[in-house]
Amino acid sequence: RARAGDRLEAGAMVRLPPSGPAPEARPAPLPDRLVEEVRGWVLHLDEAVIALDKPAGLAVQGGRSTARHLDGMLEALRFEAPERPRLVHRLDKDTSGVLLLARSAADAARLTAAFRAREAEKLYWAVTAGAPEPPAGRIALALAKRGRPGGERVAADAGGKKAVTDYETLARAGKRAARLALRPLTGRTHQLRAHLAAIGCPILGDGKYGGRPAFLEGIGLEPRLHLHARAIALDHPRGRGRLEVEAPAPPLLANAFLLLGLEVQGDASSSR
Question: Catalytic pick from 71, 92, 157, 206?
């Protein structure tokens, strides 16, 4: 290794380190069983995009107390691509449903820009404790974060960030519960959860925002968040037309639909 004071002489051989970015280091191989599980979540796969049906309970990214997360499993979704896929948006840990990944840096930049520009149309399904009145409408309540990092939540605040959600009641069990289609027009943290709690219809199982009223006991419902990212639609990053992906209702929601009488005609294929 040359030192700062060394001088070159005629005939000396000089070796330079390679230029450009270092090659991507491959992480340790994932267990075959985990690879099979992760690939089973794939809803759509093409040369630019992978769409997953993320299960509830799986964090998208890691943290101090989060050892199991999707970001640590992306190598399973590399397939034959030169680089592993990249996250371009998020879903809360307890929310299931459609999550998009980009298969290259260029595709990631295009998709990220589309999400930031709010060009992606998102549809969520939720079961709520209580039924909203009117049965369809728009919730426009600015939201601001409260509390300490790690335990923070959002709350309605006139001085907060603009947050808008359109909702439609697909079915209802009297005033006790409802099945809603939700279309967030902004992307604030916990927006859907905070908005529905603010109008007196917290998402079933959402103790953080709804407290005890968010739990309907004695009929076999699981005490977990009943929120599902049903569909995403946006322009394909490589100009291949409109990309539309749907994720079927998970067993958690399907069970609630059945127990509360919230099933609707054409459930298996409904895009509402």
Answer: 92
